Amino acid sequence: MFAEVSHFRGEFYECATARRDEPFELWDAVARTERAVKSAMNLTLLPEHRRGHGAMYDGLDHGRIDIGHSAS
User: Fold this and answer.
1) 3-28 residue pLDDT tens
2) CB 29 within 8 A of CB 49
3) Domain boundaries, the chain
């Protein structure tokens, strides 16, 4: 199971083409929370999200994910 999750995380990170650390940290926060996610802002308060809320807005506004990325 760890190998599958690790592979997924690697592929997800490679799909991000701009501001890749921020969407990745948001995903980590979503994946690790036990509560319902009601807003992206709430995710910035979780320990998995190590950046401030300004980085979250920047990542959402300017981040890019290449949905055509294929595994190698």
Assistant:
1) 888 888 788 777 777 777 777 787 77
2) yes
3) 2-65
Q: Are 43 and 56 in contact (CB under 8 A)?
A: yes
Distance separating alpha carbons of residues 60 and 4, to the nearest angstrom: 26
62 neighbors 18 (Cβ within 8 angstroms)? yes
Q: Which residues contact 24 (CB under 8 A, 6 or more apart)?
A: 9, 12, 13, 16
For residue 37, give the 3-state DSSP assignment: coil
Residue in the structure block whose two tokens are 């990745």: 24
Please state the pTM of the whole predicted model.
Answer: 0.57
For residue 65, what are the CA distances in angstroms to 15, 68, 69?
5, 9, 9
